[in-house]
C-alpha cells in the first residue's frame, strides 16, 4: 500500500536523509542496478519539481543512466537499511546483484520504467529532463582538489518528479 503525497511535504526529509544515504535505482531493458547516493538536490526548475542526482562516469549506474530516460530515488526510514546502503555504495552492480545481496525488492513504479525499492518509506520517481558532464574548468578549485583529484567527474542528471509517495511498511 502506498500513499501519494506532494513532493514539497517531504523535501526536508529528502535533504535530511540524503547525506545518510538514499538508493538511486535505474533500469535499462534487462539491466537493473541501484547505488547509494549522498549528494543531490531537490527544487523547482523549468516550472517543474526536480531532483538532481550525480553519478560518476566510472560507475556501472552511469551506463544505465545514459541508456535510460528515468530513475527513482528511494529513501529508507531514518536509520534503517544502513548496511544495505553501505553495500550498494561500495560494491559494483557489474560484480554482484545488489538486490539479492541486500534482499531488496525492486517494486514496479507508477509512472516510470525504473523500479523503486519496496523496503523504503519514501519514493521519488523521476523522468530525466537534462544531463550534463561537469566541466572542471568551471569548478571551484578547492572542491576540485578535494573531491576530484583523480579526474573522475560526475554527470549531473536533472529529473522531473513524476510521482512522490510513501510506502507503508
TrEMBL record:
Flavin reductase like domain location: 23-165
GO MF terms held by the record: FMN binding; oxidoreductase activity, acting on the CH-NH group of donors, NAD or NADP as acceptor
One protein family per Pfam: Flavin_Reduct
Transmembrane segments annotated in the record for this chain: none
InterPro entries referenced in this protein's UniProt entry, alphabetically: Flavin_Rdtase-like_dom, Flavoredoxin, Split_barrel_FMN-bd
Family the entry assigns: Belongs to the flavoredoxin family.
Name used for this protein in its record: FMN-binding split barrel
Amino acid at each position: 500500500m502506498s500513499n501519494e503525497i506532494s513532493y514539497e511535504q517531504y523535501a526536508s526529509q529528502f535533504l535530511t536523509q540524503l547525506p545518510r544515504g538514499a538508493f538511486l535505482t535505474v533500469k535499462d531493458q534487462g539491466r537493473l542496478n541501484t547505488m547509494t547516493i549522498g549528494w543531490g538536490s531537490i527544487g523547482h526548475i523549468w516550472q517543474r519539481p526536480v531532483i538532481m542526482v550525480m553519478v560518476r562516469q566510472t560507475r556501472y549506474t552511469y551506463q544505465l543512466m545514459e541508456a535510460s530516460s528515468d530513475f527513482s530515488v528511494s529513501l529508507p526510514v531514518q536509520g534503517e537499511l544502513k548496511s544495505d546502503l553501505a553495500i550498494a555504495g561500495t560494491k559494483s552492480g557489474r560484480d554482484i546483484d545488489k538486490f539479492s545481496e541486500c534482499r531488496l525488492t525492486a517494486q514496479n513504479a507508477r509512472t516510470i520504467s525504473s523500479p523503486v525499492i519496496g523496503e523504503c518509506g519514501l519514493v521519488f520517481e523521476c523522468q530525466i529532463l537534462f544531463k550534463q558532464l561537469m566541466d572542471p574548468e568551471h569548478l571551484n578549485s578547492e572542491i576540485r582538489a578535494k573531491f576530484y583529484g583523480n579526474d573522475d567527474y560526475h554527470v549531473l542528471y536533472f529529473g522531473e518528479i513524476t510521482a512522490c509517495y510513501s510506502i507503508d511498511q
